[in-house]
Design brief:
This protein has 380 residues and is an all-alpha fold. Helix content is 66%, strand content 0%. It has helices at 2-18, 29-35, 45-61, 68-77, 87-111, 115-132, 138-142, 150-161, 163-167, 174-191, 199-211, 215-233, 241-256, 261-281, 288-309, 316-322, 326-337, 345-350. The longest helix is centred in the N-terminal third of the chain and has 25 residues, at 87-111. The termini are close together.
Length: 380
């Protein structure tokens, strides 16, 4: 129920903010004149600054949420100049002003009463940051990664992990490299806490970890895989669809040159193994939704990842599921991933193992999933 509540809350907040956008927002006459200039003069920069100041203040202090979306879109539509010749001057001033007044806006939002006004103002600012995709605004967003409110935390993560934002974190630039590392470290801390382990947040962080161009991103992706592996082992995992995403991202790392290919491959093998074992061992324990999600992940990963890694179409898992043949599915698990006697085809192809046994010998089989708890789960 908690997961469903989070999804509902995020969507409800979003739709509240985009509804009824018929009212007039901030005054745009002067800023639009500046946007159309091919060359900016020194007197134009204060106009940009004043527009951002006025619009952000209105966003924070409005009590009429019926036109919030229009106000936010008014700001976003004017973040760039219409003339390429003036673009650098314009966007630099807009960025500086956005950082200044959004940072001040968060301080003002903290003081608003009642608490719901403070929440809505903070949420609006985070959604604005998300739309601006400005690296300068990373710091104001980072401070909300540990916020006690789930929706605030979600939008803080969203603003720091969006594809448009991530693409700008070019590690060739020293400042960007430092920022990318800082964001990764903050997200690692978040993922390590219960509040950062909701599947909506984990999906965003995993995508970011796979795309950001620093080695620490691979470590963060491994942390998420380890978290899911642990949840499988103790039968507390939920929303198994997420593991399809995680497995695809691990596969992408393997295929595009992981820093530690063996470690990434090992996590891929162990997580996929647990998905198979959960499907088999949980057939009398799991509810129909859980079994459907597991089956979907198994078939999709066999098609889009396993087949490509082995350079040959693989369909045994799909056929076994269609025929409800658990014995054949377990045989394919051993053949593909390994057993106590021999390595599987995937470890041999990718040159990895599952660590060492207590006696120091190399483990050729993934960990065995414990039997499910005695009490069956119920569908949420």
């Amino acid at each position: 129920m908690k997961t469903k509540w989070v999804i509902f809350t995020v969507l409800a907040a979003f739709f509240v903010l985009v509804a009824h956008s018929g009212s007039q927002a901030a005054n745009t006459r002067d800023i639009d004149i500046v946007r159309n200039k091919p060359v900016l003069e020194s007197t134009d920069l204060p106009i940009i600054n004043d527009f951002v100041d006025e619009a952000v203040r209105e966003l924070v202090n409005t009590r009429d949420f019926s036109y919030i979306a229009q106000l936010r879109n008014t700001i976003l539509a004017r973040r760039t100049s219409r003339k390429s010749s003036a673009q650098t001057q314009y966007t630099e001033q807009f960025s500086q002003s956005a950082h200044k007044y959004i940072s001040e806006g968060f301080k003002e939002a903290e003081l608003l009463k009642p608490k719901n006004r403070s929440f809505m103002a903070t949420l609006n600012l985070l959604i604005l940051i998300d739309g601006l995709e400005d690296l300068r605004l990373a710091e104001p967003a980072i401070r909300f990664l540990k916020d006690e409110n789930t929706v605030i935390r979600y939008w803080a993560v969203h603003s720091l992990t969006s594809p448009g934002f991530t693409k700008q974190l070019d590690p060739a630039k020293a400042a960007n490299l430092q920022l990318a590392r800082r964001i990764v470290e903050q997200l690692k801390t978040l993922v390590g806490t219960p509040g950062g382990q909701g599947h909506e947040i984990l999906a965003l962080v995993a995508e970011f970890a796979a795309e950001v161009g620093v080695p620490q991103g691979e470590v963060l992706l491994g942390q998420i895989a380890d978290l899911r592996i642990k949840k499988y082992a103790d039968w507390t995992v939920d929303y198994e669809f997420l593991d399809g995403t995680v497995l695809k991202l691990l596969y992408k790392k393997i295929s595009t040159g992981a820093v530690n290919k063996a470690a990434v491959s090992r996590r891929f093998g162990q997580l996929y193994s647990y998905v198979i074992q959960r499907y088999v061992k949980g057939r009398f324990f799991l509810n129909p939704t859980q079994k459907h999600q597991l089956a979907s992940v198994l078939v999709e990963i066999e098609k889009s990842c396993i087949s490509r890694l082995l350079a040959k179409p693989q369909t045994v898992i799909k056929r076994s599921i269609e025929r409800v043949d658990y014995t054949r599915l377990l045989l394919e698990h051993s053949s593909l991933l390994g057993d106590q006697a021999t390595p599987g085809r995937l470890p041999e192809k990718l040159n990895f193992n599952y660590g060492t046994n207590p006696n120091g010998s190399t483990r050729t089989a993934p960990l065995t999933l414990p039997d499910p708890p005695l009490k069956p789960s119920t569908e949420e």
